[in-house]
Amino acid sequence: MARTLGVTAVVLTVICLCSLANADGGRISEIFVEGKVYCDPCRVQFQTRISEPIEGATVALQCRSRINSTVLYTVERKTGKDGLYTIPVDEDYAEEICEVKTVSSPRADCNDRFDKFEKARVLITYNNGVASTARYANPLGFMKKEAVPECEQVLKELFPEEQTDE
Questions:
Q1: pTM of the predicted model, to two decimals?
Q2: Segment (H or E) for 63
């Protein structure tokens, strides 16, 4: 009986020590910010069915202080052939403002910046109730110099109530 209690005490002690060693909230790996960069052929500043991913676009993640806007972290990455990027972040920035922004497009025919939507804010913390280590930024893009002819049909499909009878 005493031996059983001794073994039980040892097992419980090991479990408690393992729990304490992992007291940082179960953090297993770093956070990854993921997103997409696309070409807007209609110049409407949102994705449509004819939007195209941009390979080789450069994006930057920047985290700055909420108090005095001091930049605390900046990193740039390029998109893959599907227009997707992944940015690893090895710290918790719960008290900072973090945003992904477009830097450049390799496409000469599609490198006009959006007027207002060039940044996507991302909450980078382990303490937000999200079990995944991935944080997703809204899609960002660049516009073509001129809208392509197919855009008229695409916009009719998206906004049929705005069409007038001719």
A1: 0.78
A2: strand 58-65
